[in-house]
Write a structure and sequence with these properties.
Elements lengths: L1 E5 L2 E10 L3 E3 L10 H9 L3 E3 L7 H16 L8 E6 L9 H8 L7 E6 L4 H14 L5 E9 L17 E10 L6 E7 L7 E2 L17 E4 L2 E3 L5 E2 L1 H22 L9 E4 L4 H11 L10 H4 L6 H9 L1 H6 L1 E10 L3 E10 L7 E2 L1
Parallel strand pairs: 2-17, 5-6, 5-7, 14-15
Antiparallel strand pairs: 1-9, 2-8, 3-4, 7-8, 9-16, 10-13, 11-12, 15-16
Length: 351
């Protein structure tokens, strides 16, 4: 396990953007009679916001960033670095972070970093972005986390289509001498990488004609080799074991009192799993917000989306202690303890 303590970094704001289009799970054609109701009852994911082809994760992140910069009254010239975290890059080359520098009109002196990651991406991104500031050379860093998972999964697979929504977010970080420390815990189990896996499309296995053909793996479970596949049972077991252990290890290592935490914000996997994790850690329901009902699993964007949609007023008007925990692609996981004080947190933005 990797533990990190990062000082002198303040979260100034968090924003989130989702597509206007809403897909209702009850209406999905991948379900036979009665299946939709059962899936909704278990996952509590009733609907998701989904993009149409042509809209990318960077588009959603850029919109969230423009609104947040305006609300913060930050001059774009004052931004020293941008970190973009996503599984859904605009192109294979160049890094989408470079494209975002131009589309956001950030200065050419801006350091642009891209991290390819999924569900744990916001915690990984917070570690990276805050580390850049902790060195005291950079003062303002933007962390953009977003995914268009609906474009990476098969539209004909009942195992994944009901779960994932699309979103883009921005977290603004700034150097502040004496700001409360952030604490992190990370881990990776790469031997199980095929539990969430896209077989074709990278340099290991390029795309051939057969990879574009739908293969039937079960009733209403059709996907191509260019689509992401997920071993649901293995991912469930992984999340159930690593998430509580990660949070407990973080608390033990840094002597944190979990009863003092105002919000425990988890990656929005599914309601059944998250509730099992919450109960293991003995967090009260009112301290554990969920956004999956309306937005589904938004991958690396899910923690900031949950903060913005479920706790916006509290984060904008109060001093809060929070723990975030995310797990998934890699397989990997991460937990973060952070404190905020009346941050800028605009309402959810529609694209």
């Amino acid at each position: 396990m990797a533990f990190l303590r990062i000082e002198n970094v303040a979260i100034r704001g968090i924003s989130a953007c989702v597509p206007e289009h809403v897909e209702e799970n009850i209406d999905l054609p991948v379900f036979k009679e009665g299946e939709a109701e059962r899936v909704i009852a278990q996952t509590k994911i009733e609907r998701k916001h989904t993009v149409t082809p042509g809209t990318t994760a960077s588009d959603l992140c850029a919109k969230a960033t423009e609104v947040l910069l305006n609300d913060l009254s930050w001059e774009k010239e004052s931004v020293d670095a941008l970190v973009f975290v996503s599984s859904a890059a605009d192109y294979i080359v160049p890094p989408t972070a470079c494209i975002l520098q131009d589309s956001l009109s950030l200065p050419e002196s801006c350091l642009c970093i891209e991290i390819k990651h999924g569900c744990p991406g916001w915690v990984v991104g917070m570690t990276t972005a805050s580390s850049l500031i902790n060195g005291k050379a950079l003062k303002r860093v933007l962390l953009l986390c977003g995914d268009t998972s609906t474009l990476l999964n098969s539209p004909l697979d009942k195992e994944t289509r009901p779960l994932f929504g699309d979103a883009g977010t921005c977290t603004a970080l700034e150097f502040e001498e004496g700001a409360p420390a952030m604490y992190f815990e990370h881990g990776t189990r790469g031997k199980d990488f095929k539990s969430i896996f896209t077989p074709a499309g990278g340099c290991r296995n390029g795309v051939c004609k057969d990879d574009l053909t739908f293969i039937e793996y079960g009733e209403n479970q059709k996907r191509r080799n260019i689509d992401c596949s997920m071993d649901g049972m293995n991912v469930f077991a992984f999340g159930m074991s690593t998430a509580p252990q990660s949070v407990s290890s973080l608390a033990d290592h840094y002597n944190l009192n979990l009863s003092d935490v105002d919000y425990f914000v988890m990656h929005q996997a599914n309601h059944y799993m998250n509730e099992r994790i919450r109960k293991k850690l003995k967090f009260q329901p009112e301290k554990t917000p969920y956004s999956m009902f309306e937005y589904g699993n938004t991958s690396c964007a899910s923690i900031p989306v949950t903060i913005v949609t479920q706790c916006q007023t509290d984060y904008a008007t109060k001093s809060l202690k929070s723990i975030g925990c995310a797990f998934g692609v890699g397989l990997s996981w991460g937990s973060i303890y952070f404190e905020t004080n009346n941050i800028t947190c605009p309402p959810i933005i529609l694209y």
